[in-house]
## 1
Amino acid sequence: MKTAESERTTAVSTLDVRDDFPILSRHIDGRPLVYLDSGATSQKPAAVIDAISDYLSEHNANVHRGVYALAQESDAAYESARERIAAFVGWEPRTTIFTKNVTEAINLVAYAWGRTNVGPGDAVLTTQMEHHANIVPWQVLCRERGAELRYLEVDERGELSLDQLDRELARGDVKLVTFTHVSNVLGTILPVAEMTARVRAAGATSLVDGAQAVPHMPVNTAALGADFYAWTGHKALGPTGIGVLHGRTEILEQMEPFLTGGDMIASVDFDGATWNELPFKFEAGTPPIAEAVGLGAAVDYLSALGMERVRAHERKLTGYLLDRLREVPGLRVVGPPEAENRGGLASFTIEGMHAHDIAELANRGGVCIRAGHHCAQPLMRRLGVAATARASVGVYNEPVDVDALIDALLAGRRVFEL
Amino acid sequence: MKTAESERTTAVSTLDVRDDFPILSRHIDGRPLVYLDSGATSQKPAAVIDAISDYLSEHNANVHRGVYALAQESDAAYESARERIAAFVGWEPRTTIFTKNVTEAINLVAYAWGRTNVGPGDAVLTTQMEHHANIVPWQVLCRERGAELRYLEVDERGELSLDQLDRELARGDVKLVTFTHVSNVLGTILPVAEMTARVRAAGATSLVDGAQAVPHMPVNTAALGADFYAWTGHKALGPTGIGVLHGRTEILEQMEPFLTGGDMIASVDFDGATWNELPFKFEAGTPPIAEAVGLGAAVDYLSALGMERVRAHERKLTGYLLDRLREVPGLRVVGPPEAENRGGLASFTIEGMHAHDIAELANRGGVCIRAGHHCAQPLMRRLGVAATARASVGVYNEPVDVDALIDALLAGRRVFEL
Amino acid sequence: MDDLYRDYILDHYKRPRNFGELDPHDMEALEHNPLCGDELGVHIRVKDGRIEDLRFHGHGCAISQASASIASEELKGMALEQVGELDADWAIELLGIPVSATRRKCALLGLKVVKGAVTGDNSWPVGSG
Amino acid sequence: MDDLYRDYILDHYKRPRNFGELDPHDMEALEHNPLCGDELGVHIRVKDGRIEDLRFHGHGCAISQASASIASEELKGMALEQVGELDADWAIELLGIPVSATRRKCALLGLKVVKGAVTGDNSWPVGSG
Ligand SMILES: Cc1ncc(COP(=O)(O)O)c(C=O)c1O
Ligand SMILES: Cc1ncc(COP(=O)(O)O)c(C=O)c1O
């Protein structure tokens, strides 16, 4: 006997990869773990965890300097990871720099590019929907350099206006336009290629924060046309401790380094130093070797699934999520109404319940969702909400996860006597 | 029947922990792996590898923001690691900051402290025996700020002169004195407490690079008296991707942040941001969570061995290493002559063989040693050598490893027909 | 019955005591919970070295609102000196429910803002972990 | 016999051909191997668009010294145009031993410095990996 609900859920595709993720066999207070917080960080397939263990147990050595066998294996593992990671998003390894997270990648651009290219009277243009990682470094830079930070506005549908972008660029003072590929709160997918084309035509430089895009859809950075494209390993099935910055050769070559020390120099004497070639010029000190190996395994895993399939799966699942959230009385979703235009997430409020309490009550049902400002306080202000709850999906989620969320939300409303 | 050699080697203590390190059961071209490159990076005990796997397979979530069970477990794991890591070196967790490596830790001080505290006419004092990580950031800072970078000289024994330190401080322009705890080339152990006392008396600030000290001897940072003390996880049995900076509360509180973005803010609006409390103010973005868990397991492992025992073991082993190296014709060791005054390493040259070739030939015997400038080109210039070979020990080394090295060096000389 | 969301917690959340503005007032402060951006402010009127009256304003979760509301009843009439000595345990005990490490800051925000207004010290109350 | 340290390699290492200074010279360059700080410089004398004579100077490992020494014999008399087209394979083949990824830079340093002197382009020879 099939209930109406189970009929509906089976109509939604699954990638059927749950078993690849060890953590998903956990139970929370006797209930199976339902992980709907991939927007904060992804879970890791066994292939990634094993790649890290294997590297540390069998090949570990420092890179770039050793002539012995282990060191050569480590070099090969690290540089092969760089090649596969760059290829995964359609960029060159030589201009693919490993940082510790996307936050450092953006700071690298703010310090090493911004301090020489943004001056008094110049402007940096960002958007109202950015993560703090793509706002605060520009506030700091603009204050230091006497430049102005301006924001593209978010409309009622959670989208930007290309007209406003044109008007801002026409003012002639914009040196950099920096924006997210996918909003971590609204889910909005920005029209990156259209935007970078306009920025380029205006003679400005573009930076795209791909943290919420790369793990969830096919991303071809070359086609997107940004001057810098940054993302973060831990949201892309990889480990913490690694971020990625892709940059154009000409720009990276003209930039001064950011962090300085070992590995990034060509030679050092008492009076000064000269810099190593790309990408090493921007990788000071021992790099995240085991982390690169882990992220390499993660992109291999995603490539094997196929990013088109990943996107199709997550889009359907997000559609199902949006549909079912409508069943909860008093619930309001922010951002674009259709799954077509959004990444795999939905942020929402429930009348009479604070987001924290929503997340706490979801956890009673074994469901992990996030609550708060999602590191996007300016956007929260723009939306006129203090905080939202957010459910976000990954390759391993299935319709039953959404069902568990809805059950938990309905149960939570009863606790609150709503 | 005992040979003279085996009698001698059994007289040297071993900690007998080889079996804890999976990689040490590897063979290179049929010969057991002999790892003598802990100065570059350490091997990892199963306890560390398992802690990382366990965290990623069972508890993984982002920290500091989630109310659900996994997020709370991750918070607890991350902050408990911070507490144990701080306690391991006698410092407070609140002023113990995680970076990606010691290079970033030093750069953090150069950018966030240096740019406001070092100005035109001021001087930064470092030493001729520093790793590039403790030279280049100061060259960059001094150039930017119009300050002078001066070097304490290294004498024939590989030591510094406290008199020169006094004379430099007496000039009255020194704002910062930065030096290594243990030289990664000479092995010299610097008299840190005496040096920081003089620096403090002169009203200057001190930074100590503990990369080569923390893994190898008892280190009590509070007693050492430095204002900043930095070290790196991967040399201390931990994973890549994590470094540690300990700083004095008053100084850290007055400093502006370095990297900015999520987690390090108290609040952000369109016009500006306010900073979070310590240590979070200096940890922008998703921190190295799995890496902190791994390094936490590493310090637990080292604490269980006992750092006094570790030091005693490595000192004896280094004495044995120095003794046996003398048997190789044409071999010259740089740095202090006695094991008493050095960390667990010996750098050397062999007449008629370049360091690279020495390392290559050592690898034929399954022995991993490093060759080159060891990221200390200014010191190489001072010593008048192009490169050295370096053998460095860890808790897992035993006298037989030294024997294997000597055999390989003697065989290498025969290949070179010396 | 729910462990955390007891009846009296929900009652204080839905009908918080001593909420609103208080004008004129002698002391005030405004604080954020960095975890979620929740905002809580307080106005305090002082007489003879004691809190004569106080009002909270702002928005927050059930835990932070209930905690402020419950505390407000205890704080009325309290000597300013005594306020300076209140620690995290005081607020947690008063709240009377088990609070997870993550939500401790929610439970302590009310006390933090009151201590900030009275003593000028806006660090987290001792024992906030 | 050793795979890498063949007799002729050691011979070129111990008795490098065309080493020293060459004054006057028409072209020169100096390069470092970032791996180890080894230094290799070259002086070149040009006649009719060809390398008439050249000398290397500096210090390095057996691989880099032998590689420069062996190459020096081939380079003498070579048209400058042709020098500009030499790639990594040329140097590796000439050396005639299996070179690991790490030591490729040692084997290519000589070619790099010569190409730098002749063409002004001091990037690593194509195919250096
Ligand atoms: C004394 C010293 N300082 C700094 C470093 C740099 O460490 P890391 O590469 O982990 O930043 C090293 C090791 O390479 C070192 O030996
Ligand atoms: C859009 C966006 N940008 C930046 C970040 C920051 O990523 P990380 O913490 O890995 O630096 C995040 C995630 O927190 C994000 O969602």
## 2
Amino acid sequence: MSLDDLYQEIILDHYRSPKNRAPSLEGEDVHVHHSNPLCGDEMDLRLRVADNAVDGLVFDGEGCSISQASASAMTVAVIGRTLDDALDLAEDFRRMMHGEESKRPDDLLDGVAFEGVAKFPVRVKCALLGWMAAKDAIETYLTGERDHEVTHDE
Amino acid sequence: MSLDDLYQEIILDHYRSPKNRAPSLEGEDVHVHHSNPLCGDEMDLRLRVADNAVDGLVFDGEGCSISQASASAMTVAVIGRTLDDALDLAEDFRRMMHGEESKRPDDLLDGVAFEGVAKFPVRVKCALLGWMAAKDAIETYLTGERDHEVTHDE
Amino acid sequence: MSFDVQTRKKDFPTLSREVHGRRLVYLDSAATSQTPLPVLDAMDGYYRTCRSNVHRGVYQLAEEATDLYEGARRKLAALVGAPEHGVVFTKNATEACNLVAYSWVRRNLGPDDVVLTTHMEHHANIVPLLHAREDLGFEIRWIPVREDGQLDLEEAARLLDDGRVRFVAVGHVSNVLGTINDVAGIAAMAREANPDCIVHVDGTQAVPQMPVDVPALGVDFYALTGHKMCGPTGIGALVARPELLEQMPPFLTGGEMILDVTTEGATWAPIPGRFEAGTPMIAEAAGLGAAVDYLTEIGLDEVRAHEQQLVAAFLEGLERIEGVSVHGPRDPALRGGAISFKLDGVHPHDIGAMLDSYGVCVRVGHHCTKPLMRHLGVNATARASVYLYNDLDDLPPLLEGLEAAASFFAR
Amino acid sequence: MSFDVQTRKKDFPTLSREVHGRRLVYLDSAATSQTPLPVLDAMDGYYRTCRSNVHRGVYQLAEEATDLYEGARRKLAALVGAPEHGVVFTKNATEACNLVAYSWVRRNLGPDDVVLTTHMEHHANIVPLLHAREDLGFEIRWIPVREDGQLDLEEAARLLDDGRVRFVAVGHVSNVLGTINDVAGIAAMAREANPDCIVHVDGTQAVPQMPVDVPALGVDFYALTGHKMCGPTGIGALVARPELLEQMPPFLTGGEMILDVTTEGATWAPIPGRFEAGTPMIAEAAGLGAAVDYLTEIGLDEVRAHEQQLVAAFLEGLERIEGVSVHGPRDPALRGGAISFKLDGVHPHDIGAMLDSYGVCVRVGHHCTKPLMRHLGVNATARASVYLYNDLDDLPPLLEGLEAAASFFAR
Ligand SMILES: Cc1ncc(COP(=O)(O)O)c(C=O)c1O
Ligand SMILES: Cc1ncc(COP(=O)(O)O)c(C=O)c1O
């Protein structure tokens, strides 16, 4: 396992120029706050829903290159998808982080670049932070809540 | 360390034909009950005092050859001594069991045969059971009590 | 013999030594087993090639150490048929029993509740309950032991009858009598009397010597220890139903088991990490993982078959000696490898010392089962226990030593 | 350098390995130290020559094992100037802190009492208190950390002023800032404010790297861990004033720590056995004893002097790198071997990964000190920590890796 497996160029691009990184979202329906107990990293994710689909999604927070880049790539992959489809994609990414092959590599877009992270167990949680926050935001929306705070291990 | 260091002939004699082993003592002043947590052995010791000296002393109970023989040899060495002197002798025996040289080998009588037991740490408690019960009986007498029960490690 | 003991014996270095000029005959595996070379190598491998701390390191070494540690959890879980996150590493079986006492018993029971246990338990399985009772005041009921060394299950049924028993603590295999208890049956009885009853099994003596499938037993908690199953000292485990574990507050607290800590309070990590505070027993886990491999390779059914043959021979041999009587079941099928006995007129201490002079290691004392000793009407017993590296050659020195003790100490 | 590090280095096998094609540079001794060969040999010696259980065996093997175990207690006691029966073996420092929390704090404090601790504690020293507070409701006061990484003792005096503080928990050396706290001074202040105040020190980071005399510090409890002081994993200790220990009920209960057990209850063994339930960490104690010998042979004042030289060089080197700033005291005389730092614009995780590719092991994260992280205004830090086997050759790879991280991750 070399450093290049971890820090692919696409990842560094997302890290250096994140997409959809913002402290607020107009017309926000749900806000979730997630943190990674391992490194203390924190992430705010805001979701706006229209027609049962992800209409707007922004993230903000502090974290390592992997967590920031992964959240950025996630927003690009998820915006525009129906809520169910987005949940399915998040699950696909989670499985990929546990060493399984992605079933939807084309839909993950730049997310596939994170496949190599699975070889670095301590960094898996970094890559998952944004995706798990998105999953939580959608589930929170579906239960009718507006806010959710989670410190999690997955 | 061989078995002969432990089981000297004098010890076996006391074990096979114990002195002052009895379930009761006429005119008993104090009764103490001691037990050894290691092996569960129990000992009853009864003391009669006259003129501030050990006038009568009997033991009873269950235990290994070392504890029975040591209690027997102890009674022979202690009966007739003043209380203070008996306490001093018990302390001498205790030191011997911790590897120091006895200062009163002549007064310990057959008790000196137990010197080798010091080399068998788990058996030291067996050899001490009777002596520590005697010490306790005397101290109990001096505080004016009549009965004392002790489970002890020494 | 069912597998090649002579070859296996070579894996256990201490067995090739002499004491008092005699070949060492180790008959004290119920106290602690010998440790085979692959286990020592696994620990050495950790220290020599990837010595580092687990869990939080982003560097290569720490990942290797973490793999060893979590790999051991996976292996142990597989051995007892349990899910990985239902395996909590502890320092020994005693800590596992205390974890149950602190995180479940003390958090769930009150003065109106009843706990059921038995007269043949090891102190590890009952003292935490006696200690908790001092603070909580619940009632403890005791399943008696019959003449034949078996639990009196009819009496157990009566003790369960009023439906008030909320916690059962029972040993799987007795370290004194050798009795194998029907813990699945007892668990079923307890649940029938009270569906909410929680069952804790002390499996310390079972896991080393027979196949155990914890979920199949239908119990909630199952404690075990590494040093009796060819593993190192310093590690044990509590196997638990994950759903139950998830509801429990932690017991030992500190690093590695929190989600967050502020001056206001702490929140707890998911299981099993929640119950593993501080730097864990890393080398020991690596060793225990190798021990599980070692046992699995031989096969625990083979170990069990081997022991049954030995036990049959030992029981026969012992009973041929005048004055010897054996405690516990006579039928090897009903028992494990520990055989307690008495020798008329000779104190166990003296038996032990004489046997030592013959190179034979047996345990003498109350074996941390004082209530059972009272029940048997003795202060102590002598106990010979066999394991996978013993064979029939180990019997004659035992018998010889006992004959010598009988004639030497006879009054 | 004050002693021959090159020779010493050969005693630590992991140090001679390579990672990612680079020489391994181990800078994570504050997490866990490397283990020298004499320690591995001591454990191996136990397993290979006298593998047996301690305390209750009447046979030769068990006596040898007991001597190893109790010999280790004697050595450790001598190292910290404490009486033998004031040394309780635990599985790690975390268990030692929990022992204090369960057997003293939870038995003595109530809702009107006050506990004093600091913002720089390791979770091991505060989470057991936060957990106990949930049940008991006492107040916790926090000594703040000044800008220069030192405890604010003026504020401490104010916090003690009303005489209500009954328990103080303070670390001897910070695992993040490196700060050496004046625990003797704090203990004296606390006792002046309230003569009944009990002082518990977390000495985990102190014992490995400087001479410590616990009675001279005037504290009641002192926790330490084996794996950070050249010892094995799986063992630690609580050093305690025997008179205090004697008054305390046990915490973990089970075998080996009782005087008697009946169905009515149990009575407790004398100290220190009362606090050591179950089969202890026998091999680990043998290893820890050898570690104490190893440290004593070098001399802890030599270790300290060596570290101070290294720390001075490391601080200088780090501060030459643009964007790096070091947390904690600048003066090597005021600190131990742990150096936390940040690198502007680069997350500690990324620093750690980059350094790993240079063969350099550092720890990144919150180091089990979340309240301190909040105080420092960071989520995590990177931490390099030196020990007796490090030398000046270990600095250039660190600096090189940091330069690389700075240019690679700069946004
Ligand atoms: C200051 C401090 N206290 C306590 C601990 C806990 O030690 P252990 O993990 O060995 O229980 C550590 C190390 O992790 C530490 O650095
Ligand atoms: C039946 C039983 N339970 C529990 C224990 C305690 O195990 P440990 O000493 O490893 O905690 C033992 C062994 O001593 C045992 O035989």
